[in-house]
Amino acid sequence: MYPSKFDYVAPTTLDEALEVLAEKGPEIKVLAGGQSLVPMMKLRFANPPALLDINRLPGLDGIDSSNGHLTLGALVRHNQVVKSDLVRESNHTVASAAPWVSDPIVRNLGTVCGSLAHHDPEGDWASVMLAVGADVVLKSTQGERVLPVTDFCVDMFQTLCRADELVTEVRVRKHSNRGGGNYQKLERKVGDYATVGVATSLELDEHGRIATAGIALTSVYAHNLKVTEAEILLKGKQPSAELFKEAAAIASAACDPASDNRGSAAYKRHIVGVFTERGLGRSLEIAQGGQS
Amino acid sequence: MNVKVNINGVDRSADVEPRLLLTDFIRVTLGLTGTHMGCDTTSCGVCTVLLDGVPVKSCTVFAVQVDGRRLTTVEGLKQNGQLSPIQQAFHQEHGLQCGFCTPAMMLVGTALLEENPSPTEDEIRWAISGNLCRCTGYMNIVKSIQAAAAMKSEEVPA
To answer: Which of B19, B54, B67 sits opposite A108 (nearest CB)?
Structure first.
């Protein structure tokens, strides 16, 4: 299968890349890992007249935690996240989700930021970021914008990234030593989209109560769904099995899965409840024990 | 556009359209047909090659993207005219049935052993989980990679 003809540019400086985006805007698509874009082009779901390959831009492939966040550059591949000690020390939900993204070979090329910018409603990373809290950094010749991921993610395949902007990094909130997080994913086989995915994150206060909670769902709504109502329920409470059951029931009611060959809507809704409860339980264990 | 690569230790270059897939660049332009095209949809992993030592699905990469990079295909596995440990192991353990997925399996096995010289069975199964064998001959593929790991560990002087 072959995509339509396109022009190809692979600049070697960020300024040059931003100039190209400013000039071509909607006529050009950014190519990072290409593990979603290239298949879409081959199936001709996407027919961009030109590609801007950012793989030759320096300084975008770093994982860093020195500025108070866990920062993942635009060219950080999923497998880099899988292998990173820094990630394991900084955010339990991110560390837990990474090995579940697609398959090991796709993970060698696919990028976290690319997945966020693509914003497939069945992508894992947006749920992770919505649960733990993150900011997306966008650059253009006009300057820089830093958007909370809750604003950035608009709807399926829609983000606030303008056609002249490049996602250069995502800044993820770190877990403290009283924090924990987890990603639960059910997939038919390696590399398939999630049948159901649930990202959870907890931060406890000095009294062991829940300071903040994050829950977001994959593949069971028209877009990655942050379950705000359940997060509000958990906030300020003493964690307990009953409380987690209640939050799980809210998540289960909030989702709106479709029946398909991965399972019936009722089955998926049930799994959302099971995974939310299980994920919160695991997050709590980590938060209380400091173990990942 | 002109694309220059070092493939299996040999410098090659060709003028290509930006939309030429790496699989076809290797198979058609360069004439190295050991790399196979399977599903053509990033699922089966049969087209896997090593890009600077790292397995990638060549059906999901454009040839222009690999300009200046180093590629290894199944044709590049032999060492000094001899089968490499992974090739010997696939032969010895009968790690293939129809042979269609074999080049990719051997490349993934090679990359795995570079990074992790003594993988557990689970680690091997995890590593090849992006590669389909339609004969479902996974048992012998796993055994082959285990045998290659054992051969390689004997090679290395203590």
So the answer is: B54
* Neighbour-count burial of B151, counting CB atoms closer than 10 A to its CB (0-12 exposed, 13-18 middle, 19+ buried): middle
- Whether B65 has its CB under 8 Å from any CB of chain A: the answer is yes
ipTM of the complex: 0.96
Q: Distance from A149 to chain B by nearest Cα, in Å?
A: 28
State the amino acid at position A208 in one-letter form: G
Domain presence at residue B43: yes
Same domain? B61 vs B30: yes
Residue length of chain B: 158
Q: Decide: helix, strand or coil at residue B57.
A: strand
B80 within some domain: no
Provide φ and ψ at A179, rounded to 5°: -115, 160
Enclosing domain of residue B149: 85-153
Question: What is the spatial distance between Cα A199 and Cα A210, in angstroms, rounded to a whole number?
Answer: 16
Contact B19 A38 (CB under 8 A): no
In this prediction, residue B155 carries a pLDDT of 77
What are the residues whose beta carbons fall under 8 Å from the beta carbon of B126, sequence distance 6 or more? A104
Contacts of B43 (CB under 8 A, 6+ apart): A191, B132
Residue B126 lies in a domain: yes
Query: Domains of chain A (ranges plus CATH)?
Result: 7-53 (3.30.43.10), 63-173 (3.30.465.10), 179-289 (3.30.390.50)
Query: Distance, in angstroms, between B6 CA and closest chain A CA?
Result: 18
User: pLDDT (tens digit, 9 = 90+) per residue, A111-148?
Assistant: 999 999 999 999 999 999 999 999 999 999 999 999 99
Residue B79 lies in a domain: no
pLDDT tens column, A55-87:
999 999 999 998 899 999 999 999 999 999 999
Domain count, chain B: 2
- A10 interfacial to chain B (CB closer than 8 Å): yes
- Residue B130: both structure tokens together: 């992006």
Same domain as B11, residue B70: yes
| B93 shares a domain with B30 | no
Q: Are A105 and B130 in contact (CB under 8 A)?
A: yes
Categorize the per-residue pLDDT at B157 as very low, low, confident or very high, splitting at 50, 70 and 90: low
> Nearest-CA distance from B148 to chain A in Å?
20
* Chain A touched by B96 (CB under 8 Å): no
- Predicted TM-score of the model (pTM): 0.96
Question: Do B66 and B97 share a domain, yes or no?
Answer: no
* CB within 8 Å: B64 and A8: yes
The closest CB to that of B55, out of A39, A53, A108, belongs to A108
Residue A34 contacts B, CB cutoff 8 Å: yes
For A105, residues 6+ apart whose C-beta sits below 8 A from its C-beta are B45, B48, B55, B56, B57, B108, B130, B131
Amino acid at B52: D
